[in-house]
Design brief:
Order of helices and strands: HHHHHHHHHHHHHHHHHHHEEEHEEEEE
Number of helices: 20
Largest sheet: 4 strands, mixed
CATH architecture of the domain at 481-598: Sandwich
Strand content: 5-15%
Strand order of the largest sheet: 4-1-7-8
CATH class of the domain at 481-598: Mainly Beta
Structural class: alpha+beta
Distance between the termini: 188 Å
Number of strands: 8
Length: about 600
């Protein structure tokens, strides 16, 4: 079969020969070509086609099906040469072969990337890798600067180091088969990489220096803050200033122990001098009692700070504390009386004797106590014998307490001082009772004299003290009786017979120009009267009844009686008075009504 028409696509055969004036194309594969000058030819086809005008050659174009195959050819099937499709484009030239692996170059690229600047990527023209390295390094610089005492956190450093290792490994892998734009030789690149490692190393050194400077500044600021606390506490009482002192000392100790090589630590010894002087300021102002607590505190500083840390300051407070204990203790000694529970402030002087027994201040304690006792004893004969006696009593107790804390001769001397004070107390107690009686304080005088007679039975004033006690007891019920001061006088010209018409024993106390007492036993056959009126007409008057009685002789004048029940009868006392005149004798009867009475 063949195609009929002009410029048609060749089917089973092509043109046998070109038309007149044209060039003939080769025969198609469908059959043999016709001889030149013939028309279409194919087995069993037409003999000769009508003549056709010549066709100018088509311009070159991409051969599609039915297009021009070539400028001088006809049409042909795909894959045909001239007269068919255009041949496919020539294949791309083969890629240049990769350079052989170079381990030294890989090492060089890895070293160049370890600088953190990404130069390994730069020399391979890997711009993205270069940018990533520069960004990572810049981020580290932003985080690290300005330098801080604590430096960069461990997580950031670990992350950055991991990034450098990764960049070095990745660069080395790329550089194994990638030529460098510069330097031309791998050994030179290795040298450059090694040299550039000085960049991060130098950065580390510079950063460490900056961080050290920041640390030094921080420590100096901490030292200044501690100094400010000490300055602010100056002038305050120790109890309120102590927290500030403790805080400042803790800062000094931390600088000395944990930052010993710092500039701040080297300044601590000088600061401690100022610290000690500030804390002990009350001593310099001669406020010895106020100086004791801060000086005691300073003696504890070496325990927390270390003796090596404070040096000679370890014993600096000792002499000052000893002086303060003595001066404050002596001041308190002057005001010692029984109102103080300890008999004096032996806390200060006692602490002096136990803490600094060999000090010059301790040697002055006993003489001070002795002279104070003597001075107080002289006041017993003055206007306030009771106060003087109280003071001597306290001093005696004080001396006894101190003798137990002293050593050697000081202890023995203090014991003698205590004994001497006791003798002064004995005479002072009597003088105090007399003073109380004369002042009209009969109740207190009674207590004082009873204590005196019970405690000092062998004292020369014991008998008279007993009479004062009798007179004071009567004066409590009959105040005018207190106008008479008891003496040792006894007897008189007036006879007085006292009888007891009571079933209970009775004690009769009397005072006036003479003072005394006696006791009448109970009347066994007697009974209590139902009323005062019946007692007035019948007491002590029953004929043939034997009443217990006592006859005494008294001087003329007013005599004061007190009928005092003896035992546990429950009856009350009764006071009465009588004026005795010469030429008469008198009787007195004690009886019981509903309450105890007499006349």
């Amino acid at each position: 079969m063949s195609w009929d028409g002009q410029n048609g696509a060749g089917g089973g055969g092509g043109y046998g020969a070109p038309p007149p004036g044209g060039a003939g194309g080769p025969g198609g594969p469908g059959g043999p070509g016709n001889p030149p000058g013939s028309g279409y030819g194919s087995p069993g086809g037409y003999g000769a086609p009508p003549p056709v005008p010549p066709v100018p050659p088509a311009p070159p174009t991409a051969g599609g099906y039915g297009g021009y195959g070539a400028p001088a050819g006809g049409f042909g099937p795909p894959g045909s040469g001239p007269g068919g499709y255009l041949p496919p484009p020539p294949p791309a030239p083969p890629a240049a072969p990769k350079p052989p692996a170079d381990a030294l170059r890989a090492v060089a690229v890895g070293l160049l990337n370890l600088s953190g600047l990404g130069l390994g990527y730069a020399f391979m023209r890997r711009w993205l890798g270069l940018a990533i390295c520069l960004i990572a390094t810049a981020a580290l610089v932003v985080v690290a600067l300005p330098a801080k005492p604590d430096g960069v956190s461990g997580g950031v450093l670990a992350g950055y180091l991991a990034f450098l290792v990764l960049a070095a490994a990745h660069g080395a892998w790329r550089g194994l088969r990638t030529r460098l734009s510069w330097p031309p030789l791998a050994p030179v690149a290795v040298v450059v990489g090694l040299v550039l490692l000085a960049v991060p190393a130098g950065g580390v050194v510079l950063y460490d220096n900056a961080r050290d400077n920041a640390t030094q500044k921080m420590l100096l600021d901490r030292l200044a803050a501690a100094d400010s606390k000490v300055t602010a506490a100056k002038g305050k009482d120790f109890s309120s200033a102590q927290p500030a002192y403790k805080s400042a000392l803790a800062s000094y100790s931390d600088l000395k122990k944990h930052h010993s090589g710092s500039k701040a630590a080297k300044l601590v010894p000088a600061r401690l001098q100022t610290f000690y002087s500030t804390v002990a300021a009350p001593f310099d102002q001669q406020q010895y009692c106020d100086a004791i607590p801060p000086l005691k505190y300073l003696r504890t500083v070496p325990d927390s700070f270390g003796k090596d840390g404070v040096g000679s300051l370890a014993t600096w407070p000792d002499d000052k504390l000893a002086t303060s204990l003595y001066e404050c203790g002596v001041v308190d000694l002057q005001s010692t009386d029984q109102s103080t529970s300890s008999g004096g402030d032996e806390n200060d002087l006692g602490e002096l004797l136990t803490t600094f027994p060999q000090s010059p201040q301790a040697a002055k304690v006993e003489p001070a106590v002795s002279s104070t006792i003597d001075k107080a004893a002289k006041a017993i004969g003055g206007s306030d014998p009771c106060g003087a006696t109280q003071k001597v009593t306290g001093l005696g107790s004080f001396a006894t307490t101190l003798s137990g804390k002293a050593h050697g001769s000081a202890a023995a001397a203090l014991a003698k001082d205590s004994s001497r004070a006791g003798s002064h107390v004995e005479s002072g107690t009597y003088a105090c009772g007399v003073h109380q009686y004369k002042s009209g304080d009969f109740d207190t005088a009674l207590t004082t004299m009873n204590d005196f007679t019970g405690k000092y039975p062998h004292d020369k004033n014991n008998a008279l003290a007993h009479k004062f006690a009798i007179a004071a007891e009567i004066a409590k019920e009959e105040a005018p009786a207190g106008k008479h001061v008891p003496t040792m006088a006894s007897g008189g010209s007036i006879k007085l017979i006292v009888s007891n018409d009571s079933p209970d024993p009775v004690q009769i106390l009397y005072t006036g120009k003479v003072t005394g007492s006696f006791t009448l036993k109970a009347c066994g056959s007697c009974h209590a009267y139902s009323s005062e009126a019946s007692a007035q007409g019948s007491a002590c008057q029953a004929s043939g009844k034997h009443y217990p009685e006592k006859t005494i002789y008294l001087p003329t004048g007013t005599i004061y009686f007190l009928h005092k029940p003896s035992g546990d009868s429950g009856a009350t006392s009764h006071a009465d008075s009588e004026t005795l005149r010469s030429g008469s004798y008198y009787t007195d009867c004690a009886y019981t009504v509903s309450s105890y009475g007499g006349f």
